[in-house]
Specification:
Largest sheet: 7 strands, mixed
Oligomer: single chain
Distance between the termini: 37 Å
Strand content: over 45%
Length: 118
């Protein structure tokens, strides 16, 4: 399973940005797809996840209310809509996937950089 992120860039505080994760899998029916981020000098942080089959979502506390994760079954993509961005959101954002019956994310993309200028 290969994952490729896109949509990162340089934005200003208060702007919105939409990240996308595309998959090489024929179907993600048995997977949970998540977004994580890592800022320089900080640990990797959970942002959001979605269960492909049922669409159940989960969000990290630091982004709750500002971020929406969604899936597009016809395109096998998972999007992350981020609103009201702040400088603290600056990080390398990764898409990851895990089999629905496991806890560990075994598949990771290369990441896409999001930089928010204040």
């Amino acid at each position: 399973l290969q994952l490729v992120e896109s949509g990162g860039g340089l934005v200003q505080a208060g702007d919105s940005l939409r990240l996308s994760c595309s998959s090489s899998a024929r179907t993600l029916a048995m997977y949970v797809v998540g977004w994580f981020r890592q800022a320089p000098g900080k640990e990797r942080e959970f942002v959001a996840s979605i269960t492909w089959a049922g669409g159940a979502t989960s969000y990290g506390d630091s982004v709750k209310g500002r971020v929406t994760i969604s899936r597009e079954k016809s395109q096998n993509t998972v999007d992350l809509q981020m609103n009201n961005l702040a400088s603290e959101d600056t990080a390398l954002y990764y898409c990851a996937a895990r089999y629905i019956t496991t806890d560990d994310y075994d598949y990771w993309g290369q990441g896409t950089q999001v930089t928010v200028s204040s």
